[in-house]
Amino acid sequence: MASEVNTDFLHNKKLDSIAADILRPVGITQGFVVWMGFLGVSLLGCIYAYYIQFDKGLIVTGLRDYISWGMYIANFVFFVATSLVGMLISSILGLIGFKWVKPIARIAEIIAVAFAAIAGLVIVSDMGRPERLPYVFMYGRIQSPIIWDVTVVTTYMVISALLYFLPLIPDLAISKGRIGHTPKWLQSTYEILSVNWQHTPQQYKILLKAMRILLILIIPTAFAIHTVTSWLFAVTLRPGWDSTIFGPYFLTGAFVAGSAAVVIVMYFVRTNYKLEKYLTHHHFDMMGKLLVLVSIIYLYFNINEYLLPAFKMKTAEAVHIHDLFVGEYAFMFWCVQLLGLIIPIILLLFKVFRKPFSMLVISIFVLVAAWFKRYLIVVPTQDHPFLPKQFVPDAWMVYHPTVIETAITVGTLLLVIIIITILVKLFPVIPIWEMAEEQTGNDESPQD
Amino acid sequence: MIKRYLSLLIIVLISLHLSAQEWVVPAENGARLSPFAFSDSTRKAGAELYNTNCKSCHGDPGKNNVIKLVPPPPDPASAKMQSNPDGALHFKIAEGKTPMPSFKNILSSVNIWQIISYIRSFNDKYVQKTQTKPGGSGAAGENAKIKIAWLKETHQVQTFISATKEKVIQPVAGTEVKLFVKRYFGNLPIDEARNTDAEGKALFSFPKDLPGDSAGFVQLIVKLSDEAAFGEVKADTTLAIALPTYRPPLNEKRAMWNVVQKAPIWLLLAYTFSVLAAWGFIIYVFLQIRVIYRAGIRKDQ
Q: How much is the ipTM here?
């Protein structure tokens, strides 16, 4: 990232055309109302499911003594994982100096904010007595990875929100006079959030410094958030979790899920908002290459994680490995590995599959597989405790998520989609000033 | 070799057979009766004792949720249990027979009678017979008292038993006395049971290596065996006569698994430093947003 901003772009006529393109879809449209209405009504059903759980307790879920971490915790790991892409794209790729990430960076941050914000709620959904949440802070032990997790998730969410907000400030100032077609309250929101932005060199200097601090700070925070999430499992001795590579294994898996999520949002933004000029085939091509890179790294970690225990076949590990490879979870396991990892890697190696639509389809497979992958990490291990299950009710022996549990999980996903929709629809989704500055700088039209 | 295995097998089979056999109670013990009448207060005390000492195996009376053992412990409400006379129940609880543990050093005789009174509350047909007081027979005396003395030179515990006989306090000769030391779980018998001499005294040699608390204190308990004559007579005292032993509590030192106040220093430092560093920068960025805001106002003017 440049340490100074050439404010010449403010007087360039290109700014007007870029701003007009990007701001055209902003506002409350009929499609937005219908979509939000649909999400809202569906969410109400899920909130009712949560009301039942709140009233009756976790007995309405499939969770019992042996498998006490089920769909909720798998969902939590998935959310934390997906949110990590904000750090990968804006921070790592941005700091290295890849220019193509500029129009995508904000989408990545939106995904980071939405998933990180709801991840905390997902944890609350797994609590039988959610009103005791303050006890975590009152009586928590800092020796417990759960406290570390609460700390880093909160920190990561705040940094991601700031990394979304800071580059948005100049855009809000630019947009102020250009969104006459939107409701008054939205215009006032822009006015307040633009914190008196006047495009002075001093303001740009402060902004760039603040962003630079955050872009560096978010790297250790993001590493911490997902490493700690993996430690929730890896600090135990249980087969499938007792692994020294769980930290990097989770981290690389996170980049796979996050990149796929970014591609999906990119596709819908591009087609719905007619932003083909800004989210070009080149961007999809680069995202495809990124996705194939992180997937290959993740595949490598998968091979490591499953092949070594499968080679040694220690008693307890063997039961777990058999369950995954040929047993109860085999179908899910091989679908996840093939459809969510191996086939996407093979396809994405060819340029023809790195086009927007095929990227969308592949990314949906990757993202759905990523969710089930977390389920496979969380649930099967608990199926085989070291002491045999005996003299317990049949309901404790196996775990089947109930309808209520599924509805609550769907509800958390709906919340994420609602946050993404609001941020994508009511605010400029592509950084106007950065695009204008770039085009003024080298005066090249965007590649297509 | 095969012969040896065969004989082993036969021994095992016989012992299994024996253990499954009827539990024989000596006639004298079976005929014993409670010294007091069962009442609501004895049943209540019995219920509490039952829940702490018996329930883990015998379950809730009448619900037949006993633990799975061979032979199975009978449910207290069952006919098998209730068909025992009071004295037989007392004997069985006191003595035990594998897998049933012996409670005579854990529970007092009165406690055992209280438990029996609770057990009998599950039997509608039960009519209690109480013991007729032996008091006034003249032989033993009433209001027996125990005094405990420590003989430092010989490392012995001396007990002195006296009782009121014909309105005069007199030493009790020839009665059995037992000495115990209180431990975490139950009472540890010390030395053999002794009979008092003509002066009412009995001597117990006390081990030199018995661990006490950090100052060497132990609680001594002295009991008279002849409950039929004296009722339950017991005295206890705490003396610094054992080996001073300091066992640091397991949670004394800082450890990963300890409470937060005893978290490892390195962890406290690492956690605090990381949180302060990250949030220091975050607060700095918030302040920078304020600077941007102020700079905008200046530009306006």
A: 0.90
